[in-house]
């Protein structure tokens, strides 16, 4: 008597990346926090409004041909002196405040994201080298980091911004000024990444998988980037999220002090500086709405950073 062949059992299907993300502990933690969901929604809405600003505004505030002085200092639409289509009023150049906020938010986000990216690349690279190589290289990098930590980030950014502008000339175009701001902010925030990555690398490099990679002859560069770096990404994501808010604040501070974006291509900080000149003359809307937009963006990003820090901390699970 022969045994009947067993029916083929289908192989278990591997869940997709989206399905694994939905079932993860991080997404579960995100769904449990209503405050985090509200903050994420605000960041998403502001990001989309800034991204699609040309489709949502009534004028291009960076184009002088579209500005008319006859429309200057118009109050918001719901007031007695308000006029269409200026929803949030206009400034002294006839620039629509709503349009300027969306375009200014684009610049603030671009400077913040690029500055954080530059700081992360520089800090992660130096942290990997310091932690993996050790010795005199580690001591040199960490001493430079210790010296920089004695100064506030805004002071470092002001110093770098001033030195670069003195070397290149104070009359820089908007694109060059944006690059200078990105470099200044990036050089102000790299230390946190370097110290965090260095500490993680010093722990990871003594584990068996690193010894096995060294045994099969993998070069140090491959071991650091392909094997050690992924195990340090949790703290880096938290630092990057929090530093994004700090970078936007730093850019706004530099612009408010007159060292940031010019009046012809204003960021949120520049708009606040312009509005501050007219605060006591009754044109409160010129500073109030850019300040509210900046505060909403910073607060929402900080709330996301706090949630991400708690979600990735195993001691709080």
Q: Could you characterize what this model shows?
A:
It is found in: Cell membrane. The protein has 317 residues and is mostly helical. It has a domain at 107-316: MetI-like (MetI-like fold). 67% of the residues lie in helices and 0% in strands. It has 13 helices and no strands. It has helices spanning 17-22, 25-32, 34-51, 53-56, 97-133, 135-149, 153-168, 174-204, 208-215, 220-228, 233-256, 268-276, 285-311. Helix 3 crosses helix 13.
Sum this structure up briefly.
With 317 residues, the chain is mainly alpha-helical. The chain has 13 helices and no strands.
Any chance you could write out the topology, listing elements then pairs?
Blueprint: H1 17-22, H2 25-32, H3 34-51, H4 53-56, H5 97-133, H6 135-149, H7 153-168, H8 174-204, H9 208-215, H10 220-228, H11 233-256, H12 268-276, H13 285-311
CATH class of the domain at 107-316: Mainly Alpha
The Cα radius of gyration reads 25 Å
- In CATH, what is the homologous superfamily of the domain at 107-316? MetI-like
User: How much beta, percentage-wise?
Assistant: under 5%
Number of strands: 0
Largest sheet descriptor: none
Q: CATH topology of the domain at 107-316, what is it called?
A: MetI-like fold
H/E element string? Answer: HHHHHHHHHHHHH
Specify the overall morphology.
elongated
Helix content: 55-70%
**Tally of helical runs:** 13
Low-confidence spans: none
């Amino acid at each position: 008597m022969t045994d009947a062949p067993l029916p083929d059992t289908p192989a278990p299907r591997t869940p997709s990346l989206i399905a694994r993300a939905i079932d993860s502990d991080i997404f579960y933690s995100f769904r449990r926090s209503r405050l985090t969901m509200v903050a994420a929604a605000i960041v998403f809405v502001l990001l989309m409004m800034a991204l699609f600003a040309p489709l949502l505004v009534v004028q291009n505030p960076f184009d002088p041909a579209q500005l008319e002085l006859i429309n200057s200092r118009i109050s918001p639409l719901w007031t007695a002196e308000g006029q269409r289509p200026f929803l949030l009023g206009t400034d002294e150049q006839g620039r629509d405040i709503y349009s300027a906020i969306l375009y200014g938010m684009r610049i603030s986000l671009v400077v913040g994201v690029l500055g954080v990216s530059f700081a992360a690349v520089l800090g992660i690279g130096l942290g990997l080298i310091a932690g993996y190589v050790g010795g005199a290289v580690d001591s040199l990098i960490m001493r430079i980091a210790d010296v920089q930590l004695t100064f506030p980030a805004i002071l470092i950014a002001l110093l770098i911004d001033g030195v670069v502008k003195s070397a290149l000339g104070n009359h820089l175009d908007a694109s060059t000024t944006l690059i200078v701001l990105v470099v200044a902010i990036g050089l102000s925030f790299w230390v946190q990444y370097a110290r965090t990555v260095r500490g993680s690398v010093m722990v990871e490099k003594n584990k068996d998988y690193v010894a096995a990679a060294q045994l099969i002859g993998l070069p140090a560069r491959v071991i650091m980037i392909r094997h050690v770096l992924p195990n340090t990404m949790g703290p880096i994501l938290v630092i990057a999220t929090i530093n994004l808010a700090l970078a936007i604040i730093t850019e706004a501070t530099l612009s408010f002090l007159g060292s940031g974006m010019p009046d012809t291509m204003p960021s949120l900080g520049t708009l606040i500086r312009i509005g501050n000149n007219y605060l006591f003359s009754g044109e409160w809307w010129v500073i109030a709405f850019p300040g509210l937009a900046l505060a909403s963006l910073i607060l929402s990003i900080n709330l996301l950073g706090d949630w991400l820090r708690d979600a990735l901390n195993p001691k709080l699970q």
